[in-house]
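Hey L., structure's done. Input below.
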Amino acid sequence: MSVEATDASFARDVIDRSHEVPVVVDFWAVWCAPCRQLTPVLEQAVDALEGEVELVTINVDENPRTALEYRVQGIPAVKAFRDGRMVDQFTGALPPQAVESFLRTLLPSEADRLVELGDEESLRKAIALEPGHPGALAALARLEASEDETAAAALAAIEQGDPERGLSMLLEAIRGATGEERDRLRKIMVGVFADLGQNHPLALRYRRELATALY
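Output:
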């Protein structure tokens, strides 16, 4: 069964929920014939995954704010969310096999499963499998920060809702560090970027400042 979202409920039904399970959003309209072709294909493919992915539908005519925010220019438009961020999308009525392939890319990888375990050995195995895995980088950064007062204070500030202060503290520490300590702090900062989301304004800004501090 799909959930019908609105402008008012989108954050709860999609963004919040995607932290627990991947969510696929079907942007549609009553007058759209290809939408009527795609929606049952999506429903069948999602049902076959038995709860590993959830489907949300949203009528673009009745909810223009969300359609505008996510730059829906043609429908049907399907956008996939995981961990609070949009991770993939397609436009148009795809055949069943293509829809199934799209959904499979959203399922947890072996690295994802290792990150869920949370111990250092599992996190390092996850990074070996997927060197840029955001969850593994962020979790490992937290573990390594426990050994450093400055990094621990910075991450505490981030967890308390002040990511800018935390990133500023890490950057300042990097400017005064050398050798292995500097590289360890860099890895922690990269983990924070991954946790925020690579396109988060603070991640974009401090990634540039980090590059300047390092080089």
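The chain is about 60% helix and 15% strand. The two ends are 52 Å apart (CA to CA).

-- N.
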